[in-house]
Design goal:
four-stranded antiparallel β-sheet; single chain; 2 domains; alpha/beta
Length: about 350
């Protein structure tokens, strides 16, 4: 937009409008661009939603989402007071930024990471200091810990990182927690179930640790919008206060019922996430056969580049063949493509299309 309406707050003018290009309304696409899980949720989710609907929808849902928070807490050996639930982990992250990072010092994030962290920071007027990842796109933990120890508003890390898929061991997280005792270290574990190491067992020992997870990826429930945060009760209370002050909606009755059913179906969870990891390993080898460099991934996507082909051109050529992958026109990663793990058939279609394009 060229002119900004005078009615807008100045900070709104600086926000980039969301371009819904990654969710085109075209049938029969091989859609490997937004890290959805192609296997769908546990069949029990649909029964639970139907049952919840049959109970009636005329009443508001539980403002505290207690049943869902108890279900999450029980799985992790936590208490309900250590769990916060929100409409997707994006909402949880936004509340956490508001609750913890509006401080005098800057918030520390890696320069290559989930792009929404900077959006939330901008939204709430939080200054960010971007710490450079190394040439292998790995987060430099000693540098980050040293910078954190010198004073900061907090640290946000995605583990595994997005869009690289590279995971960090728990001792790296512990190092950050120790360096940043007065502020929150937020670990976004959106992709942790695909081979990463969760920081949830560290919560009892670290009053400054907030772990955020989602049901969008490993539970294949992106359409239901359920995310959660776990941490000691004083952190969860802050999130609850923000949510109440914004008068944000609690999870609706159908989403809560579906999420609980998804959490209970351990067999479906185990089967589908192993399937994703197995397909990921196979696709890695196939892409390497086509001369792609594939970063080691602990997520449901691969971050790849080709030594001889421009990434934007490859993404466009794939799109012309009805295969969607993600290209980021950003410094340092403009030569990479992010490819979500699809079904075996979808991945074969991708490899065939790439073989065709590369000749
Ligand atoms: N964190 C990361 C690192 C992500 O990639 C995403 C989704 N793209 C999210 C959080 C948000 O996921 P959701 O709101 O669906 O829970």
């Amino acid at each position: 937009m060229s002119t900004v309406p005078s009615f807008w707050s100045p900070r709104i003018a600086a926000l980039e409008p969301y371009v819904p290009g990654e969710q085109p309304r075209i049938a029969k696409l091989v859609k490997l661009n937004t890290n959805e899980n192609p296997f769908g949720p546990s069949p029990q989710v649909f029964d639970a939603i139907e049952w919840a609907a049959s109970e009636g929808l005329e009443r508001y849902p539980d403002p505290e989402s207690v049943a869902l928070r108890e279900a999450i807490a029980a799985r992790q050996g936590l208490h309900c007071s250590q769990v916060f639930a929100g409409n997707g982990s994006d909402e949880v992250l936004a509340h956490a930024f508001f609750a913890f990072f509006q401080q005098a010092e800057p918030l520390l994030i890696p320069d290559i990471t989930y792009s929404f962290y900077r959006v939330y920071a901008q939204l709430y007027g939080i200054a960010c200091e971007l710490l450079p990842v190394d040439e292998g796109l790995r987060i430099d933990i000693p540098a980050m810990a040293a910078r954190a120890a010198a004073g900061c508003a907090g640290v946000v890390i995605a583990n595994p990182n997005a869009p690289t898929g590279i995971g960090l061991p728990l001792d790296a997280i512990e190092r950050l927690l120790a360096a940043c005792r007065q502020r929150v270290v937020l670990v976004d574990e959106a992709y942790v179930d695909f081979g990463g190491e969760s920081a949830l067992p560290l919560i009892d020992r670290h009053p400054n640790l907030l772990v955020v997870q989602t049901l969008s990826k490993s539970r294949s429930l992106a359409g239901l919008r359920v995310g959660f945060a776990c941490g000691q009760a004083h952190l969860i209370e802050a999130l609850q206060r923000v949510k109440n002050s914004f008068n944000s909606y609690p999870l609706d009755r159908l989403a809560s019922a579906g999420a609980i059913a998804a959490l209970e179906d351990e067999a479906w969870f185990a089967h589908t996430r192993h399937e994703v990891m197995d397909i990921r390993e196979g696709l890695t080898l196939q892409l390497e056969d086509l001369d792609f460099e594939v970063l080691p991934s602990q997520a449901n996507f691969l971050f790849v580049r080709h030594p001889a082909h421009d990434a934007a051109a490859l993404a466009a050529a794939l799109r012309a063949r009805a295969v969607l992958v993600r290209h980021f026109d950003r410094p340092r990663i403009a030569q990479y493509l992010r490819i979500s793990i699809g079904t075996r058939d979808q991945c074969s279609a991708l490899v065939d299309a790439l073989a065709d394009i590369l000749g």
